[in-house]
Write a structure and sequence with these properties.
- The complex is a heterodimer of chains A (274) and B (431).
- Chain A has 274 residues and is an alpha+beta fold.
- Chain A is 21% helix and 45% strand.
- Chain A has five helices and 13 strands.
- In chain A, 42% of the residues are buried.
- Chain B is an alpha+beta fold and 431 residues long.
- Helix content of chain B is 16%, strand content 46%.
- Chain B contains six helices and 18 strands.
- The longest helix of chain B has 26 residues, at 10-35.
- The chains are: A alpha+beta (274), B alpha+beta (431).
- The interface between A and B is large, with 71 and 77 residues.
Chain lengths: 274, 431
Amino acid sequence: MPDLTGSMSSKSNSRGTRRSALWLAVCVTFFLPAVSGAATVEPQRLLEQSDAIRNPDRPFRVHLTLTEYEKGAQTATTALVSYARITDSGQFASIVRFTSPERDVGKLMLKNGSDLWFYDPSTKATVRISPQQRLLGQAANGDVVTVNFSRDYKAELSASESIKDGDRQARSAHKLRLTASNSDATYGSIELWLDVNTAGPIKARFFADSGRLLKTAYYRRYQRELGVDRPTETVIIDGVEPGSVTIVRMSEFGYRNAPPSWFQRDYLTRFSAE
Amino acid sequence: MDYFFQAKFPSVALASTLMALVVAVDARADDDDALALQSADAPTASSRGDGRLKLSLEAALGRLVGAQAIQSRDAKRLAVDLRYKYSVSENMFIALSNRFDYVDPQAISDIYFTNSFREAYFSWQAPQAGGSFIEVGRINLRRGPAYGFNPTDYFSLGATPLLTNADPLAIRQNRLGTGMLRAGASTSVGEISFAFAPKLGTTEIPHGGWSPRFGQTNPNARTMLALERKFSDSASAQLSGLHTRGAGTTIGASASVLVGSAAVVYLDASNSPGRPLFNSVLGQDVRNTPRANRLATGLTYSFSSGWTLTGEFDYNGNGLKKSELQSALSQYMAGYVGTAQMVQANQDSLGRSGWLVYGTKKSVIWKELDLTGFVRLNAEDRSKLSWVELRYHLPRADLSMQAQFASGALLSEYGAMPYKNLYQIILTYYL
């Protein structure tokens, strides 16, 4: 005959065990990811992975088409070719050549750290410009594409959350808070959301030193380019006027020999790469 | 929200709450609206500038408002502007540049048209590091970071055959190159470059027509040596020397420095033999003109609002003091107009010292509308030249409206100009 008491006791124990197991499961479900996440997610490493997804590791060339919208109406299209290489400092140096519209064809923008120059072939003038002046033009939107954030910013993990991506779908993401770590940084701080599985960038918000939101960017249209799944389209929303939107489309990625001698002021007058 | 406030003003509280909700929904909708947008198709190869041909047509209608006894009159202009760059290979290219202007009223004598054969040169550079290069032909070699007056811009004299407006940047667009051989290389101390411009003609009085004007751009044999040195990402400088056969040697230096994240400071200075430019006004002997210092220094600041402003101080040791200018104008008023135009075309400074404030603002009212303007002040006689332009960008054209105002005493640099005001509308179509 079964021991009822024992049985009862056993049932009671069993209930207690089940209850404990349930609590353990709850704990595992809700707390372990945070703990393990805190233990395994190294923010600066994540940022480096994200940089490697956005940018090839060798000198490369990419065509950029920037489509501007005002309150939903298309207002302008600018086409650029960007030639970039990583310098000894670990940051990208880039030359941007304007190929459209016709009035801007042949104009060049050189960025090598804070060494910024604009060359206009019609006036033959090579003019040093400030980072602030560069931000006023469309070429600055290329920075959202070809820049190594990990070199100029210090990353902190501020949350793991679900956000809406560039295709308006919910995605699980790590949210990093980037703060400028040197004077070459274009922005005061950045909030960057990375895919929890791939570290691919999903969304970023760029802030001025004053804390003012300058722009929001969504990275989308991931495609295989130069051996890696990379975002080939970035939607950039103006921080002050949200109706002002620029879509940056990247195409024709290619490795391209771009020697260091290209990224000097005097070379701009002789730049002839196709 | 405070209970008392809600109880006392329920409708206001409700409205405020609704408004907050609407704003929140709007903020979300903004991103959604943006994400629903699609990028334009990438330009095709033929339309994205790979051929490097730039061809534009320009038509202008204007009104010149006369000063004193000068009658006001209408003005019109047509221009065809061509620039072409052909890449022979990765390291070689040929550049061509030409502009044809029909101008009424005629700028010089009875000739209504002016052809400006600006550039034709061949360029080669070493394929790998080192940056060695050789260029030969008619080259527009512009130097110096200043806006209105460039003491180290040695090849600007006689280089602008036609003035269509007073904007110093526009003047540079119409400038002729100089026949020269040029070479350079990168070294451990910076880039060293050399240029030799032979004498290709005698100095000509500017005239219209088809003349390539080598006499204006190459009146003497000149040799230039320059060293460009980058000290850091934020600072670079250039030392240069120019020897002109029969006229002596000019030495110069220029520098530009990034200050903070929004300002650039620049300096452009030279010490040169006396310029023969003002002798027609003062009746001086060129050989007795002493060496003179020339300086331009300024600051460009970009505001987050979109404004970029430049303030520049210009000093020309060869320039005229107030009393000299008054004396010259009272004796040679008839010759002043030509001299003043030549000074402006050479981007030189007639007065001993002056100020320039130059400003641009992108997207004024509409995204496609840009505003540009400047004020030049002769610090000696306080005369002033102001210029403003509104430029509207269409997909393949620019429509601009310009106004120019000169003011000052009769015997002053800008007060003596024959036309006080100029208004013009310009349509530029890019083919």
